[in-house]
Structure formats: structure tokens, C-alpha cells
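Posting this for the archive.
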Amino acid sequence: MPTTASRARALLTAAVLVLALAACGDDATADTDAVAEVPADTDAVAEVPADTLIEGLGRSILITLDGAQDWELDGDRLVVTMEGTSADNPSACLIVNGSRDGLGAPVSVSLEFDDTTVDCR
């Protein structure tokens, strides 16, 4: 049974997809009823494959987190190679946890700094 958060995420995803598709059309021939055609059952949208979510999480961390160099999946843990020391980036786990929770990625994340490994929980 999908949670309220996953349903909200699915509805948001569906709305973004519909708006993106509507923006691609020619204004003169645009179907103004396209927004009304969003299916009521969003379970299919909510069932994004785990590997897609993990790939998205890895990419978003590389883009948003200063010092992130690379990432790899080690079992059910995403390991991010970081530049510098953990003291250089004290808010790194806040950023990582926000990205992970926002995407709903089913993994834990560890940040490997030069001086230590930090598990973001």
C-alpha cells in the first residue's frame, strides 16, 4: 500500500510530466484538455524501479554536494567519494538525506572523505 508521501510524489511527478508534454506542443494546436487526462490511479507512476531512483540519487548528489567526486553502489549502500575532509563539509549529510528522502531511494549513503567515512542516516 503506497504511503501518503509516495502518492504525493507520484501526483507531483504526473503533474510535471503532463505540463512538460503540454509545453512541447504548438500553441495553435495545443489540446487544453490534456491536463484533465491525468489518470486517477497513480500507482504505476509511484512504482519507479529502485535502480532508477538510485541512479537519480547518485547524480543529484554529484550535482548538489560540493566536493562530491564519484559514487558507486555497494550492496544497498551508495558510497560517495568526497574531496577534502569531513570538517570541510559539515552539512553534507543534510543535503544527502534531503535528496535521498525526496526521491525515495531505497539505499543508505556513506560519504568517503580523505580522513574518515561518514554514514548519513
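The first strand starts at residue 68 and ends at 74. The chain has two domains: 4-46, 50-120.
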